[in-house]
Amino acid sequence: MKVLVGAAAAVIGLVLVVVLGIVGVVIADEDASATETTDGGGGLQGVPAEFRKWILKADEACKEPAMVPSLLAAQLYQESKFKTSRAEATSHAGAQGPAQFMPGTWATWGRDDDHNGESSPWDVGDAVMAQGRMMCSLLKQARNSGYPGDVRALALAGYNAGWGRVKQFRGVPPKSFANGETYHYVQTILSTMPRFEGPGLLQVSGSGTGPDALRKAATRMGTPYAYGGGGPSGPSTGFCDGTNGYAAGKCAASSTVGFDCSSLVQYAYWPKLKLPRTADAQYGATSDRPVSRSSLKPGDLLFWAHGGSGFIYHVAIYAGDGNVLHAPRTGKTVEVAPLTSAMPQNDYLGATRP
């Protein structure tokens, strides 16, 4: 981020963000297993674990619909390649830390989020949460601005060049501004987001409640299954009830941060549609809008019950092309699977459209 005073300073700072972006780095992929205490995965493939947990916290703290973990991850990668040392993450213009904050901007957005007694742009937790707060504010400004284009692009432009430049151009500054640095900053981050969205990336087309819910759920691919865990605000630890939530004879759910099948669905649709917590209750809330198997659309809910008519024990989101996105069971993660094999075929009860 380079919010600088004066046109010349803006150009210098914007050039430096590109220079910083060419530094190579090997990114660790340290997703924990479902039986370990984890940060929830979040589908953030290729993001170092120390960043992943804070990205998820920053995402959960922002209620703007356009905020997703992969946006913050791609932005951090562009800003610093997840570098944290002063030698590698200090620009010649004075921007500091993995989120590249200028001291004046840090004074506005920085907090001691990791509670170590100091608010510092060099602390990963402090930096990512400050980045999230600023981006959340910019996304809200972008949504309310009425300017054309993707609100994420407008917010990124504001982060890089200052919202004043977005207002000046009534949109993302053109290639003619600052040698195209802001324009390319925005395009690079948006095009990089998919690499951080996790394995089995879904390409979701269309708009509306169903596709939007599917997109939101897809950002959580790779998140562990935790029986009783998760909710509208994101993944959390679960519990064991004597039958469910166990692995290798131990209660895995109580030490796993994740979702179960119905909490993932609840999270995906919240807050546009506030579905109840359990699969059985979700079926009850949507059963007046049944959908035949031949008419399924992305975002539809699919249900399984014992024997095809008994207790409803599982719910999934239709992902298109004969696939579903779901949190299957203890020991697994949020994934895309064929409808025909996601759960026993004889248990398939039907589908509804929330």
Could you characterize the architecture of this molecule?
- This protein is an alpha+beta fold.
- The chain is 36% helix and 10% strand.
- The protein is built from twelve helices and ten strands.
- The chain has helices at residues 7-20, 49-61, 69-80, 103-109, 124-145, 151-161, 163-169, 181-192, 209-218, 261-269, 279-286, 339-342, and strands at residues 236-237, 246-247, 250-251, 257-258, 290-291, 301-305, 312-320, 323-326, 335-338, 348-352.
- The strands form three sheets. A six-stranded antiparallel beta sheet has the order 5-10-6-7-8-9. Strands 1-4 form a two-stranded antiparallel ribbon. It has a two-stranded antiparallel sheet with strand order 2-3.
- The longest helix has 22 residues, at 124-145.
- The chain is globular, with a radius of gyration of 21 Å.
Biggest pleated-sheet summary: 6 strands, antiparallel
In percent terms, what proportion of residues is strand?
A: 5-15%
Output the radius of gyration.
21 Å
Q: Helices and strands: which structural class?
A: alpha+beta
Topology as a string of helices (H) and strands (E): HHHHHHHHHEEEEHHEEEEEHE
Shape: globular
Helix content: 25-40%
What's the number of extended β-strand segments?
10
Identify low-pLDDT runs.
2-42
| Side-by-side strand order of the widest sheet | 5-10-6-7-8-9
Number of helices: 12
Q: How confident is the prediction overall: mean pLDDT? A: 84
Separation, N- and C-terminal Cα atoms: 40 Å
